[in-house]
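Appendix B. One record, verbatim.
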Amino acid sequence: MKGKQKIENPINLEKKTEASYEAKDIYVLEGLEPVRKRPGMYIGSTGVDGLHHLIWEVVDNSLDEAMAGYAKNIEVALLPNDAIRVVDDGRGIPVEIHKQTKKSALETVMTTLHAGGKFGGESYKISGGLHGVGVSVVNALSKELKAEVCRKGERHAQEYERGKPKYKVKKIGKCPPDRTGTTVTFSPDPEIFKEIRFDWQRILSHLREQAYLTKGVKIEVRDERETPHLSHVFYFEGGLISFIKFLNKNEKPLNPNVFYAAKESGDIFVEAAVQYTQDIQGKEVSFANNIHTGEGGMHLTGFRTALTRTLNNYAKKNEYLKAEEENLTGEDSREGLTAIVSVKLREPQFEGQTKARLGNPDARTAVENVVGEIFEEFLEKNPNDAKLILEKCILAAKARLAAKAARETVLRKGALEGSILAGKLADCSSSDRENTELFLVEGDSAGGSAKQGRDRQFQAILPLRGKILNVERARIDKILGFKEIRNLIIALGAGVGEEFDITKLRYQRVVIMTDADVDGSHIRTLLLTLFYRHLPELVEKGHIFIAEPPLYRIQHAKNIEYAYSDGDKEKILSQWKDKKITPSIQRYKGLGEMNPEQLWETTMNPQNRVLRKVTVADDGEADKIFDILMGEEVAPRKRFIQTHAKRVQNLDI
């Protein structure tokens, strides 16, 4: 049938074939085979995140030595041929024969899952290693790995190929009597990782964090892939206080004194640092044994509880809030907050192998007790800081109530969207959300071309007049008062803020389609800011795309080609150069210059178009970029433009 796609049923319930299921059919994977068979179970993915995770696991072992008080220096080098070298001056992995395995302890650690000094005894009171499987997993997923150890004046080594030893641990020389430590050099396996490309900035960002969290340790990072070599040294005596100041370097701090707490509760050491800014957005960063817990967990829950409860108690006690007035919510107390929470504990329970969330209930209690006690003392000793913080939180509470009313208004209008958006939204006819698209088009002219050129069955068009509000510094009630944003939210159908429900989203793809000029770039950035700040789930779930219209239309005789960059244009022209043909070249300044057929052919037709999916590789870095580009501070934006100006292409002046 035309337009229908035949789908084969993968399970045939009518006919069954006999399959062998005997003892011989039970497979046992030995050594590191399970890691190579299912690498995603151990490092999360075999993409860019998993690739960099290999570095973090080796560095974690060195940081464990630093947290235990034995290492002061760590060196990480990016070598030619996609190799990584990590060196520390810790105690060095033992090389003596292990009683249980009858092999060198070094070989046991490097080739056995769940083997290491973190499973008992007092070798490590705290550690960030991947449940003891970290370095062996790196070995399993490396084409080659070499481990060298300095202990008791002697240097030992062993090399491995895809996790298997090439030879027994052997002595290869002497070490200075005062020199101990471990060196691990590895090359990720191209059989596991389709693309091996280490990101210098990503590595710097991660290791900078680790230096803040382990004050007193020096981490040197070198990029030896090109000449001259790049290098950075991280060393922070201030620890979390220095970290807070780094995170807020492009912000206007509200309270001049940074709150800092460091205390042991039970067997858990708790550290926290807090400073409010004049921003509306907040930042909370949490760690467990120096592992970034991107999804938070019990320690962050305990922090939030203590923060909100302490602020409410202080506000009532000092009559910032009257006894009968409603308490501040967690949302109110965290507006503009920059906070770091770090716990160090003996047996962290991470949810998932990549440690996204901490599950220890006692971590919640410990953080709640420590932060509650010391934050109360901080407010009493710093009444001016307390006044500034409480005034901001109370203002946030008032804005929350106004925002709730504004969201309810949008929802009520959403029920009448047919009349409100009549003449603006050109909807599609299909009710199958999985195949529908909403194009956000700049201006009525381009909107008219898009409406005429689209496939009406699955493509909807919403023209946007002018530039929308910069939402980076605006509260939600003000944002929803802006007509074009309100129309967009109603068209999407999923609500906003607390009422957002992605299951009600009316389109699978939301495509930003703007002119290829400065104004178009600005409108695109404003829309991305709106999505990232107030509709983040659309970005996280992969619903936001950017259309890439052509820059040039090149014609000779009856032949027409489109160029999407200056490089494309030169490539097309070079093909005709020898034929002495002088084609006509049209530079598109805007989408409105294209007739409907051209717009469909180049930018909207799924067979020909170029769409870029919007993703967030590093949430912290993305947050910083939006702060710089869309915030009030001019100086950081100027520095950013000066730094990246040479990378800009197709700039119209």
